[in-house]
Amino acid sequence: MRGNNGILVPIFIIILSLLTDWYVLQGLKTIILPIRQPGIRQAIIILFRIFSIGVIVGTIIGGYFVMVKGEFTLMFRIFMHIFLIYFTAKIAFILFLSFEDIVRLFRGTISLISSGTLGSFLPPRSFGVSVAGLSVSLLVIGVFMYGMFFERSNYKVSRKTIYSDKLPAAFDGTTIAQISDFHAGSFHNRDEVIKGIEIIKDLKPDIFVFTGDMVNNLAKEAVPWIPVLRDIQAPLGKFSVIGNHDYGDYVRWKNQEAKDANLAQLVRHEQQAGFDVLINEHRAIVKGSDTIYVAGVENWGHNFIRQGDLPKSLNGLSDKDFIVLLSHDPSHWDWQVKTYPVPVALTLSGHTHGFQFGIEWGKFKWSPGQYLYPNWSGLTEENGKYLYVNQGFGYIAFEGRIGMPPEITLITLKRR
């Protein structure tokens, strides 16, 4: 929250919360109406209002300390999750109430026209509709709980094969394991992380790549995970790039020097974990007399920081070379990479997390992310150039996943 946003965001949260609280309260009053003791009904309403105000205040105060300290404090994590789950549950409730209000309005209008008298314009609310809305709200809360305690560590391995006539014979069958968006500062269960790392190790990839967002904000978040990541071995190399969160743009710094020092420290931590951090540069991987290239750019996003320098990264390479590009934000592929004069055979990205929410059912995939990113998950091919968008290993803000499990990608390169 910077500048005017520091005021506007809390105001927006307060207004939105109060409006949804008022609407939900109408349904709640209908549900408790059969209770004969008015004191009990009043107590329930007071408790509802106290809880709602407490959630608003706690979330705003917690958010302020995140900006000051640069870390997701325990207070913020607790209240942010309560706010998110509570708000979503309220929206579910409101959908039922809104549909009922449309029907009530229609019936009231017909009654007014037919009788010619105003009387009681709107029919009373239905007890059954309000109870149904509350039931669905409770179901929504249950789904969130499942995503937080089970699905966030339900790692899936996506296996894909990429074909190219540029791939040298010596690299036919080479495997690349990819993860993205580690977000080290969000992890609080070491066993869950180890579970995912062991899956990667069991794949025994020839090349291992990480496509950005190692941390939420601060370099020190990565420190506990350096030995864990160092355990991943890949005979042809381990490579990583910088993502938008790695720059520390979402917290306040005393000065630019402190911010730059944080990024430099993060690069050193990744190097300690065994990564060759590619900052607008490339590396040659040689097997016998054959060579392929792994290039990496800093973050370049259509709506995010643009530090990536594709010409610099591919300097000296030609259209005869087989190139794998690591670029955190998939919008880079749409805006620059796929039309660049030096063709990139395979671009590996992350960033979207699959929005940590969606539906995967066979070949059908849906997520809110698809309305912001043309390529938000999975494999895309255009004119022989491939993009793979990994859904992320970790999570941020909401410490869970609903319908979009964490992903480990294993790509096999095949000569066409």
What labels would you give this structure?
single chain, 416 residues, six-stranded mixed β-sheet, elongated
Describe what you observe in this structure:
By secondary structure, this protein is α/β, with parallel strands linked by helices. The protein has nine helices and 14 strands. The mean pLDDT is 93.
Approximate shape: elongated
Helical content stands at 40-55%
The radius of gyration over CA amounts to 26 Å
Low-confidence stretches: none
Count every helix, treating DSSP H or I runs of 4 or more residues as helices: 9
Largest sheet at a glance? 6 strands, mixed
What strand line-up does the widest sheet have? Answer: 1-14-2-3-4-5
Give the strand tally. 14
Beginning-to-end CA distance, first to last residue: 50 Å
* Mean pLDDT level: 93
Order of helices and strands: HHHHEEHEHEHEEEHEHEEEEEE
User: Structural class of the helices, strands and pairings?
Assistant: alpha/beta
* Beta content: 15-25%
